[in-house]
Every structure is written in C-alpha cells, then in structure tokens.
C-alpha cells in the first residue's frame, strides 16, 4: 500500500535548502516523525536517491512550524537535521539558514497575516534551547515577495532581503568557563552563541587557513585530529558524547584576507561548509571579539563584522555584554534571503527496512 502523501514546501533558506512542514501535518510522536522524515529525504543513503535530500547536510534539512502558544512569538520553529548517510535525525542544533524561510512559510500557510509592505514574524526557536528572533518578510500588497536584488555570498542568484533580529539573553557564550582550553592536544576556544563551535587556529594544524573545502575534506589525518578535538570539546562544553551528533562545529580560523574579523573554514562537523552557518558565524564573531581567545582580533571596530569563508563573507551586527568568559550576546542582526522552490505533496518511500 502506498504511504500517504504529506503537504510540504521545499525552500532555499539562506545557503541551505530544506523541506518545511506544519507540525500539525506530521506525526506527533518524535520517533515516528523522524522515521517518516528519513523516508521523505531518502536517508540513509549517501546519494539520497529515493527522496528529497540533496546528498549533503546543507540540503538535507527540515523546518517544522506551528502556531506559538508563547505570547511573545507568532510561530514556533523546530529544526531537524536529517543526516544523509545515516539513519539519524537530530534536533541537537538549530539552523539560522533554514530559519530564513520560516517567516515566508508561516505567511504562506496562513499562520501569520501579511501586511502591505513588510510583515514582522516573531519566531520562537525551540532547539537546542529556546530563543527568539523577528524576521522582517517583504510582503508588498499582502503577499510574500521572494524576488529582489540582495545577493548573499554562497548563493549565486539575488532575492528579496529578509532581515533577522535575534534577541540574545546575554548568557555567557563560553560554556567551558574558559577562553582557551587544551583539547585533543591543541589550544582551542569553545564558544556557543546559538551554535556550539570550537575555534582552532589554522597554524596549529599546519594549515594556511584558506584551503578549499575539497582539500580539507580529502585530508584524512586532519579529519581524525579534528574529530579527537571535537569529542573532547563535546564533554568540555557539557554536550556529552557527541560522536553521533552534528555539534559542536569546528571553525579553523586564521587572519582575515579581506578586511573581515577572520578567515574561516568550518567543519559541520564532517563535511566542510561552502560558506558558514548563521549562528555559527555569530558564535565565531563573539569568539573573535572577545579578548583572550585563540581568535581574538584587536581593534575590530564598531561592526557590522564580516566573517570570511570559502565563498565570500558573512556580515553580522552584534551587541555584546559582560566580559571575559562571561561575555554574552545582547542582540544580533543579519540579512538572509529565502525562496519558495516547490509547494505540494511529498510521497515518502514505504515503511520497511529492506535495502539492496
Ligand atoms: O549555524 C550549517 C547552515 C548551517 C547551520 C551547519 C546554520 C547556523 O549553514 O545557524 O545555519 O552548521 O550545520 O545551514
């Protein structure tokens, strides 16, 4: 018997691509939901040939949206990473790129009424910890406008800008309580301003810091060394055993080449990002702006700050509070674009485990 179809919108959110669902149209039970999403995306399979997934972590993502019971938010957003080649769906991280599509999706599905002009959509991020963001969605004439002239590095085509304002809680962004930790035999900085990231100086790894993602992914001894650091960092950051999850990320940092705060190459955590994640970039920026870390930048100026990456730079406005390891984020602002690619019914493969 054919498995029932599910209403789904495929969107590019920032530099990622994912399937967006209303929570009410997915199973309530998380285990049942995740098993269904594996079948929707075509996992586990390195090519995801039998589903919507694009055979890379950045194109194997899911956004689940629902009306928010919280008076300070219009909608709730749960992010799920569907691992392409493993039978694994994880809610241990959020995704600021898929977040860029949440406002448009909420309006398209009638969860938020659009104004003529720009519609603010107040979003509560559910994972890994609760936080709030307002997305300013262009809605001329009361309908979402996707087309525009904003170019984002990592996306070759322009689209309409969606400014995102994050409300920080000011909580300390250095979860080990130190600005530098010796982990996996290296001096690193563990920072979490919405995405847990370990900053590792390129020079300590014998790298320049501007190697291509393909070059870095092909370097097996480097990957083994990084995984040792990551597993140690998981414990040091209070994340426990991270061998089967997607956090923390690892950002190899070196001096900026083009006037930014730093050059980055980011393992997410096994593939190398062609750019950098949104909250990943915010975390790196906090690490660079705090004196005493392995990535500290003297005289960074007022911002917005640019985090350089393989396909350009990510610009982030940031207000910090506190000092030393107690430094936290008061607010951050950035601009993304998003685009509806397809809206319709997805048909998951049948629920049995037979694989050839
Ligand atoms: O850090 C990739 C992405 C991300 C996450 C990853 C992200 C973020 O580029 O907020 O956006 O690090 O897994 O979509």
TrEMBL record:
Give the Gene Ontology MF terms in alphabetical order: isomerase activity
Q: Which domain of life is it from?
A: Bacteria
Q: What class of enzyme is it?
A: isomerase
Entry-linked SUPFAM superfamilies:
Diaminopimelate epimerase-like
- Give yes or no: UniProt keyword Transmembrane: no
The UniProt entry, under InterPro entries, shows:
OMA_tautomer-like (IPR047687), PrpF-like (IPR007400)
> Sorted alphabetically, which keywords does the UniProt record give?
Isomerase
Family (UniProt): Belongs to the PrpF family.
Instruction: Specify the protein name.
Output: 4-oxalomesaconate tautomerase
Query: EC?
Result: 5.3.2.8
């Amino acid at each position: 018997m054919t498995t029932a179809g599910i209403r789904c919108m495929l969107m590019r959110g920032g530099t990622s691509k994912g399937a967006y669902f209303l929570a009410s149209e997915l199973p309530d039970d998380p285990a049942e939901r995740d098993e269904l999403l594996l079948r929707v995306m075509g996992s586990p399979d390195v090519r995801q040939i039998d589903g919507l997934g694009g055979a890379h972590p950045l194109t194997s993502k899911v956004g689940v949206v629902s009306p928010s019971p919280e008076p300070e938010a219009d909608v709730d957003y749960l992010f799920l990473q569907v691992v392409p080649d493993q039978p694994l769906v994880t809610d241990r991280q959020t995704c600021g790129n898929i977040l860029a599509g949440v406002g448009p999706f909420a309006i398209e599905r009638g969860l938020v009424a659009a104004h003529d002009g720009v519609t603010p959509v107040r979003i509560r991020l559910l994972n890994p910890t609760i936080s709030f963001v307002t997305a300013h969605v262009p809605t001329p004439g009361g309908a979402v406008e996707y087309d525009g002239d904003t170019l984002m590095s990592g996306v070759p085509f322009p689209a309409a800008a969606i400014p995102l304002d994050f409300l920080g809680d000011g909580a300390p962004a250095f979860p080990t309580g130190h600005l530098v930790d010796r982990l996996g035999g290296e001096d690193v900085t563990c920072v979490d301003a919405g995405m847990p990231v370990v900053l590792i100086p390129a020079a300590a790894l014998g790298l320049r810091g501007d190697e291509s993602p393909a070059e870095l992914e092909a370097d097996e001894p480097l990957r083994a060394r990084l995984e040792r650091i990551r597993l140690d960092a998981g414990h040091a950051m209070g994340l426990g055993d991270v061998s089967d999850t997607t956090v923390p990320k690892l950002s190899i940092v070196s001096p900026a080449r083009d006037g930014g705060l730093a050059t980055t190459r980011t393992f997410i955590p096994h593939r190398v990002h062609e750019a950098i994640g949104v909250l990943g970039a915010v975390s790196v920026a906090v690490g660079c702006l705090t004196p005493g870390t392995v990535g500290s930048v003297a005289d960074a100026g007022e911002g917005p700050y640019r985090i350089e990456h393989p396909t350009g730079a990510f610009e982030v406005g940031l207000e910090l509070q506190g000092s030393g390891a107690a430094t936290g984020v008061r607010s951050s602002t950035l601009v993304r674009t998003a685009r509806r690619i397809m809206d319709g019914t997805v048909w998951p493969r049948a629920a049995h485990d037979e694989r050839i």
